[in-house]
Amino acid sequence: ATLSGGALSGLVGSETVGLSGLSGTFADKNAGTAKAVTVSGATLSDGTGLASNYSISNPTGLTADITKKVLTVTGVNAANKIYDGSTAATLSGGALSGLVGSETVGLSGLSGTFADKNAGTAKAVTVSGATLSDGTGLASNYSISNPTGLTADITKKALTVTGVNAANKTYNGNTVATLSGGALSGLVGSETVGLSGLSGTFADKNAGTAKAVTVSGATLSDGTGLASNYSISNPTGLTADITKKALTVTANSATKTYNGQQQSVTGFTATGLVNGETASALTQVSASGSGTNAGSYTSRASGTDNNYDLTFKDGSLDIGKAQISQVNGITANNRFFDGTTQATLNTNSAKFDGVFGTDQLVVSTAQGQFEDPQAGSNKTVNITGLSLSGADAANYELTNTTATTRADIYALTPTPNPTPSIRLTADYQQAIQFRREQQPTVTADLGTIGLVEVINGGVNLTGLNTLTGVR
Fold first, then answer.
1. pLDDT of 241 over the 90 cut
2. 403, 429, 410, 423: which is closest to 342 by C-alpha?
3. Distance between CA 306 and CA 325 in Å, rounded?
4. Sign of torsion, CA 322 326 328 331?
5. For 307-333, b where at least 16 C-beta lie within 10 A, e where not — what string?
6. Which strands form 23-26's sheet, in the order they lie side by side?
7. What would you report as the CA-atom Rg of the chain, rounded to the nearest whole angstrom?
8. What is the DSSP string of 168-200?
9. Which phi and psi angles does 437 have, rounded to 5°?
10. pLDDT tens figures, 316-358
11. CA trace torsion 427, 431, 434, 435 (10° rounding)
12. How far apart are CA 242 and CA 170, in angstroms?
């Protein structure tokens, strides 16, 4: 014990003696209040030699307190944790600083508490419950305060999204996948948090089965503020089908005119394309039709496509007949006047405008009429009723079934010289003149000819026995 003060009472007169050597001892070392202190060692001394005339006893009745020594707790750490809905903090470490000499005292009872349960970083942790204990009874001599200034993190608890499904769809030219379902697994206790924002994307836009679907956008939200204590990852492993879309492919049609060569139509149109796609996207599809002669030919499409289920419709190639606008080269025979306009035509030399290559055309029908029945030279013969035949006639059509040519109608005049001749006049109005030097021989039965006039004799006529009259 540490002593202070001290004076001598009972000295004679003005004598002075020194006091020294006082020391105090507590009854034991342990902390306590009003603990008895025994004083010893009181000694008298001075320089006058008077001390030997006195005796002294040690003072008694002294008390003092031994207060507990305050220890400091060091090395305590608060552990980070995953959100669990509580404020409990886990502590580790801890040592006592300030122990006397080699004394040892146990430290126990430390517990930590976060300021609140919510996730966050460097959150304050309050320590409580620090207790000293050991088997030697020394702990009662010390006091301890809980350590301060500890912090730790509460990290968000990861939730798992379950029950999400990706729907099959028909090809629509984009990668969007439609999702359904979705629940949260891993929530603490009875807490509830909303799930929203899920969207799905196919790996590509093309049709296929069991195609991978990537999910994104998973978001937690609710009205209780608990969502901030959780983290979420997008679900994985989803697949769905993109089935082919029905598409009608129609082969192109075309109308052309016969030209003597093979002609064709290609290409197609498509009904049902999506997302701005055009027929050019159907790279495995083709369509064509061809023909040479005038007529109608089928144009057909065929092929496949990865994204469309194709239905094909035929088109047509219609080759129209080539038009013949003019027939030239028809001639009419010269003849004698008979009072009619009838003309005999020769069509073998007919020529046609617009014939291709070696195509063969002939005149099938034609009627000729002189412009009038009068005799004359280089008279106009009107040709009507023209029609075509020949190996290639089916490929042509006449746009004008008329033409003209020229021929002579000879006048009938008596022969002034004595050359014998015969003029036959029949009711079908055709005149034939025979001259002697030609020595004609009539061998046909003239039938209903009503008049034969013999201008001069000497002509050998045979088969006239049926004539109704001879002059």
1. yes
2. 429
3. 52
4. positive
5. bbebebeebbbbbebbebeebeebbbe
6. 23-26, 32-40, 62-66
7. 69
8. PEE--SS-EE-EEEEEEE---TT---EEE--EE
9. -65, -15
10. 999 999 999 999 999 999 999 999 999 999 999 999 999 999 9
11. 130
12. 5
Rounded Cα gap, residues 294 and 389, in angstroms: 15
Tell me which amino acid residue 432 is: I
The confidence band for 414, taking pLDDT boundaries of 50, 70 and 90, is low
Structure tokens at 431: 């005149």
* 293 close to 261: Cβ distance less than 8 angstroms: no
pLDDT digits (tens, 9 = 90+) for 181-196: 999 999 999 999 999 9
Of 101, 30, 105, 113, the closest CA to residue 73 belongs to 105
Distance CA 227, CA 236 (A): 21
Distance of alpha carbon 465 from alpha carbon 446, whole angstroms = 9
Residue 131: Cβ within 10 Å count: 11
Look at the chain and count its residues: 471
Angle at 75 between CA 71 and CA 79, to 5 degrees: 130
Rounded mean pLDDT of the chain?
A: 88
DSSP state of 396: E
Q: Around Cβ 280, how many Cβ atoms within 10 Å?
A: 7
Largest alpha-carbon pair distance within the chain?
231
Q: CA distances (Å), 461 to each of 336, 428, 448, 454, 457, in order?
A: 21, 20, 16, 10, 10
Question: CA angle 465-468-470, nearest 5°?
Answer: 80
* Alpha carbons 332 and 336: distance in angstroms, whole number: 13
